[in-house]
Amino acid sequence: MIWYRHWIEMRGGLCVAAGCVVIICLLYPLSVHGSADWFDQSGRFSNELKPFGARMGKMDSPLFLSWGIHAWFSSAAAVIVGIFLGGTGIRTSGFQPGHRSMYYTLTLPVSRFGLIWTRFASACAAVYALLATMLAIDCATLLIMGRTVPLGPMAVSSFLAGLLVVAVLAVFGLLLPLWNEQVSALVFVIAIGAAMKWAWAPITGFIGSQGVPWQTIGAILLVTGAALSAATILARNQDF
């Protein structure tokens, strides 16, 4: 019952997120084919690829472009997926107030701890399913185009993109119960817009890391666990 409840809440946003990922996958071969557009007139990287430039010395130009464009699109997909899969199981970030999943929730003999953590697990599974699909399609695209596939760097970037979304979902899972449904959806979108404008460089820098940034990953996992624990405590002490 609890997984069906989460499906009711997530299916609309999941379909929209999947549609956006499909569009991004369709743009990938066009970007790789027109890879010269990612350089300015002087032959230097355009602003989109500058966060990934440190890896250029370790990869030849075709491999770098194939990976760098994938990492850039993975960053965009991470932001988009985070918008549409947010929720706590108690409050949803859906854009329809009074979503039917909320009424179904009231009939479930399930603890709020169970609702929050299983909803988070569902969102994490959906995030990595979408990003894994995107990775597979991009790799297949490179093979069809006759290019060498930098599978390792691309897989790491996809994993880091998913990890970033997981942390964002946990933090907003803590914040969503503080407002009503209408306000929470608006706040979520405004925050993502602000991230796109002011935090885009750190986002792409993290996803385009040369190696696995273990310290940053540890900090993200710590923040994720703390946010989920705080959300559980808040849900137990607040009426909805």
Notable characteristics:
240 residues; 71% helix; single chain; mainly alpha
Q: What does it look like?
A:
It is built from eight helices and no strands. Helix 1 (2-33) runs parallel beside helix 4 (112-144) and helix 2 runs parallel beside helix 5 (151-175). The protein has one domain (2-236). It has helices spanning 2-33, 61-85, 100-105, 112-144, 151-175, 181-198, 200-207, 214-236. The chain is mainly α and 240 residues long.
How many domains in all?
A: 1
Low-confidence stretches: none
Terminus-to-terminus distance:
20 Å
Using the alpha-carbon principal axes, give the shape. Answer: elongated
Q: Using only CA atoms, what is the Rg?
A: 19 Å
Provide a compact summary of the structure.
By secondary structure, the chain is mainly α. The chain has one domain (2-236).
Itemize the secondary structure elements and their pairings.
Blueprint: H1 2-33, H2 61-85, H3 100-105, H4 112-144, H5 151-175, H6 181-198, H7 200-207, H8 214-236
Helix pairs in contact: 1-2, 1-4, 2-4, 2-5, 2-7, 4-5, 4-8, 5-8
